[in-house]
Write a structure and sequence with these properties.
This is LytR cell envelope-related transcriptional attenuator. The protein is an alpha/beta fold. It has helices spanning 3-11, 15-38, 41-66, 68-94, 103-107, 114-122, 182-194, 226-239; strands at residues 130-132, 171-176, 207-208, 217-220, 245-249, 261-266. 24% of the residues are buried.
């Protein structure tokens, strides 16, 4: 019995399919031999693994094609897997569960693992991110938005509105990670509100999250609000006795967020 006849009898497929499988294995094996001449032993081991993988996949596929029950099972598995992929795609953008990487991390999945990319975003190693303290120099003078009742403008006195492209006042959301307490977050939110910032739910102290960044930061989601974020970080640093605050650029994270949103993340 020839190898082709043995494989044909084992898999219960026609001769043409058996020849196709054997040809594919032969081509991959030939490639492994060729690479082994110019590469190291590790290359041979890797390609040998590929050959084994190809053989296993070919065997499974031929069995599925020849078995009606398996075709049904594999069909439903495909539907379930496709549904999971679509859910992960939506969750990546909307961050409903917070467990899937943001879109940029999926685009670079072949360059770095998603968790490495996510950590890079959280630590500010991207875009226009920078550190700010309460001792930072005064921001460049910016004009407030024109008053409806007047055509004159005046230098801004409180870091609430930045003229130009940032046309609406920023909205500040507070997040804190234990052991930071809600009382501490509430006090900081109240102080920021007294300084002129529009803090959502200041009386509640924001949202407690189980996992947050290791460094206190201000995140902004539109490049138009980078200056606002810097002002907010400086005020926040003042409330934290001059501690460094990271201004973290999330404008290229691919997340769906209102442009004027600024997030304060209080780290332990």
């Amino acid at each position: 019995m020839t190898p082709i006849e043995f494989l044909q009898s084992l898999l219960k497929i026609n001769r043409s399919g058996t020849i196709l499988i054997m040809t594919g294995l032969g081509v991959v094996a030939a490639g492994a031999v060729a690479v082994s001449w110019v590469g190291s032993g590790q290359n041979v081991i890797t390609l040998a693994t590929y050959i084994l993988g190809f053989g296993l996949i070919a065997t499974v596929l031929t069995f599925v094609v020849s078995n009606p029950l398996m075709k049904t099972v594999m069909g439903w598995m495909f539907v379930v897997v496709l549904g999971l992929i679509l859910f992960c795609a939506f969750d990546s953008v909307l961050q409903m569960t917070g467990r899937t990487p943001s879109p940029p991390c999926w685009r670079t999945i072949f360059q770095e693992p998603p968790h490495v990319c996510k950590a890079r975003f959280e630590s500010g190693e991207h875009g226009n991110s920078f550190l700010v303290t309460s001792n930072a120099p005064e921001p460049v003078e910016t004009l407030i938005l024109p008053d409806v009742a007047s055509d004159t403008t005046a230098p801004i006195e409180e870091p609430v509105i930045v003229g130009g492209t940032a046309a609406t006042p920023p909205l500040v959301h507070m997040q804190f990670t234990p052991p930071v307490t809600r009382a501490t977050s509430r006090d900081i939110a109240n102080d920021l509100a007294e300084a002129g910032w529009n803090v959502a739910g200041e009386d509640k102290g924001g949202e407690e999250v189980a996992r947050g960044p290791s460094k206190t930061q201000v995140r902004y989601y539109s490049a138009d609000y980078a200056e606002n974020a810097r002002w907010l970080a400086r005020d926040l640093s003042e409330k934290l006795d001059g501690a460094e605050v990271l201004v973290n650029d999330f404008s290229e994270a691919g997340l769906i967020a209102r442009p004027n949103l600024l997030e304060v993340w209080l780290a332990p």
